[in-house]
Write a structure and sequence with these properties.
Number of domains: 2
Shape: globular
Radius of gyration: 18 Å
Strand order of the largest sheet: 1-2-3-4-5-13-6-12
Helix content: 25-40%
Length: 255
């Protein structure tokens, strides 16, 4: 049997010093869920939030294969704590599991040059405007597939307003780019950033990212950045982040 752990602090030692904000979101019970096989003496655990799953502790095939009833998606990104967990994922999912490389950026203190960010945020061409994601834009994002993840992990706008944060770039009334909180953890957010395909390579994501970082700093929040690809690494570095390391993940289709 797999159980959802309600006293998540008791599993923190299993994840150790893993610097992933989605794990912190789950452990704090701010967002997401922690699952274990042994409630009394857990030695392995799964942190699950949205499309991300982190597996830690003693490799446990039953835990890797577990899909909670509330999960309706058929895609998930699984991140193993080590190679033993990687082998466990491969055995559980076989050809459904595609091994990929993701890139972690360093989580540092006050590293940002605010003047650079202010210039970037103000650098949009005249035909675009940048707006905070308030209720109207929140509801629009929920209906648009390419930017749904700007708000998807927040059940309501009230929850988003309380612990999330985002900006949208508009051309007329159309959302064409933006940066928002994929998830929230105590003291910060995990950034989700994207641009509609037809509007890429125009500096829109750079301006949106700069504005979101400035808004986070004004609130005393840390804007964490995890990169899916090297383009995302380059954008993060342009905004002031420093590269940390590459790590292995698995994209599971048919989850």
């Amino acid at each position: 049997m797999i159980y959802e752990e309600k006293q998540c602090a008791g599993t923190a030692h299993i994840f150790g010093e893993w610097q992933e904000t989605i794990i912190w979101s789950c452990l704090s019970q701010m967002m997401g869920h922690i699952f274990v096989k042994d409630r009394e003496y857990p030695d392995s655990a799964m942190a699950l939030l949205g499309d991300f799953c982190f597996l830690a502790g003693v490799p446990e095939p039953e835990l890797a294969a577990y899909k909670p009833a509330y999960c309706k998606q058929d895609f998930i990104i699984m991140v193993p704590q080590n190679e033993a967990w990687a082998r466990c994922i491969e055995l559980c999912y076989g050809e459904k599991a595609k091994r990929v490389t993701r890139y972690a950026m360093k989580k540092e203190g006050d590293l940002f040059d605010r003047k650079v960010l202010e210039r970037a945020a103000a650098g949009l061409p005249e035909e675009y405007q940048i707006r905070m994601i308030e209720e109207e834009l929140f509801e629009q994002c929920r209906q648009i597939p390419w930017c749904r993840d700007f708000v998807a992990q927040y059940e309501t706008y009230e929850k988003y307003r309380a612990c999330g944060l985002g900006v949208a770039v508009l051309k007329g009334d159309e959302i064409v780019s933006g940066a928002s909180s994929y998830s929230s953890y105590p003291g910060g957010i995990e950034i989700e950033i994207d641009t509609k395909e037809d509007y890429r390579r125009r500096g829109l994501a750079y301006a949106a990212g700069a504005r979101l970082i400035l808004e986070c700093l004004a609130r005393g929040w840390y804007p964490s950045w995890d990169a899916q690809n090297k383009w995302s690494v380059a954008l993060a570095e342009k905004l002031g982040y420093h590269y940390s390391h590459a790590y292995t993940a698995y994209e599971i289709r048919g989850y």
